[in-house]
Amino acid sequence: MSTIDVYSEVGKVKKILVSRPELYFDAVRPDSREFQLVDDVVWAEQAGKDHDVFTQHLRDNGAEVVYLEDLFERSLGDEEDRQKFLDEYMTEDFIYDDAKREQISNYLMPMSAHDFARTVMAGIEKKDLAAVEKPWSLSDALPDDNPDDPYAMHTSCNFVMCRDPGCSVGSNFTLNRFVQNARNLETVVWKHVFENMKDFASEDVKLLHANNPHGETIEGGDICILSPEVIAIGHSCRTLPQAIEEFAKAALSSGDSFKKVVVFEIPKGRAYMHLDTVFTQVDVDKFTYYPGIMEGLKLYELTLGANGELKAQFVQEKLGSALKRLLHLPAVDLIPCAGGDPFWADYEQWSDGSNTLAIAPGVVVTYDRNHRTNDALDKHDVKVLTVPSGELCRARGGPRCMSMPLVRQAI
């Protein structure tokens, strides 16, 4: 039996993956925040405390909460396994100098699994290696090529955004390739967990998409499991056509119940980086959305032909009509971000007002700062549990972005 079981966006969450951000948020500095894809420097200690409020909501509603950093620690095997992981991680971080690679290995390999995992996820600063033995190389004699970068081996400050590197799809999973190189470090960690932790991904869990360095990119925030038959996926600035095609073929031929993958054409830009920044499901028949996507919504419905070939049908219709048809619902309740006010919808969408996490039908977790959207949800009989957002929202992702359900109760 598969350890992954997600056939909806709103079934009661039974098991969910998160990452507490205190380890790596200290790597966000004024001169590195753009590289780290974070809007501002972050008070890491407070972000960790705010994240604890988030995970307590999950536990209070019956979910088993598992942490990426704990799974990573447990996934680490013998010296050969750790070196293989480290070689892949350093290559993804563009560390090609053999002497530097050996020095980093000399620093990490004597550590316990606990310290190894947390040091990798925190990043290694150049000063940490000052007393670590390394072979001589020309880089020792020449000026530092990156004197303003304090890191010898980088981390990703987006480990907290567990939605994107991998994605639960029915009884299967994806490992994703990112547009931004910094985030591909996350997938190396996720891949090691996937391959070595059978209580996370049992042997019958198929990979519907793998982290191919030479393939097009796809990110989990663009994947939405609308029903056991329908998957929505955003064609965003980060999820590209070839990857969508590969994913759709794999998902529809996996033996799972999915019959259709619906591509949502969404605006391209940082504010709308994924489908779940403009559209999320909050109950069986209720959805929150950003009004800016409503004009001329374009959908491409992908199905498999008789010979297994992928077929695409273009559809242009209103969001409510499309959802009723796709999900066989008599009516749907569309709840606009910030109640539909154009100014405040832009304001709260920027701070992830549309990025709600449903943890049961009609029960959602949101950021406290988006109070206009929260009020609108409440008026539509959706129970809202809020998380302090002063620090967490600087990383540009809300409660859905910060989590990956592994098991949801069937509706």
Describe the protein in words:
The active site is at 401 (amidino-cysteine intermediate). Belongs to the arginine deiminase family. InterPro entries: Arg_deiminase. It is an enzyme of class 3 (hydrolase). It holds the Pfam family ADI. With 411 residues, the chain is of the alpha/beta class. The protein has 2 domains: 13-67 and 160-408, L-arginine/glycine Amidinotransferase, Chain A; 71-153, Pentein (Orthogonal Bundle). The chain is 27% helix and 21% strand. The chain contains 10 helices and 19 strands. It has helices spanning 44-60, 68-75, 79-92, 98-108, 113-122, 184-196, 241-252, 319-327, 342-350, 371-379, and strands spanning 13-18, 64-67, 124-125, 151-153, 166-169, 172-175, 207-209, 223-225, 230-235, 260-265, 279-283, 286-289, 298-304, 310-316, 333-336, 357-360, 363-367, 383-387, 404-408. The protein has a 5-stranded mixed β-sheet with strand order 8-9-10-13-14, covered by helices on one side. The chain has a 3-stranded mixed β-sheet with strand order 2-1-19. A 3-stranded mixed β-sheet has the order 5-6-7. Strand 9, helix 7 and strand 10 (260-265) form a beta-alpha-beta unit. Helix 2 packs across helix 5 (113-122), helix 2 (68-75) crosses helix 6 and helix 3 (79-92) packs antiparallel against helix 6 (184-196). The longest helix has 17 residues, at 44-60. The radius of gyration is 21 Å and the shape is globular.
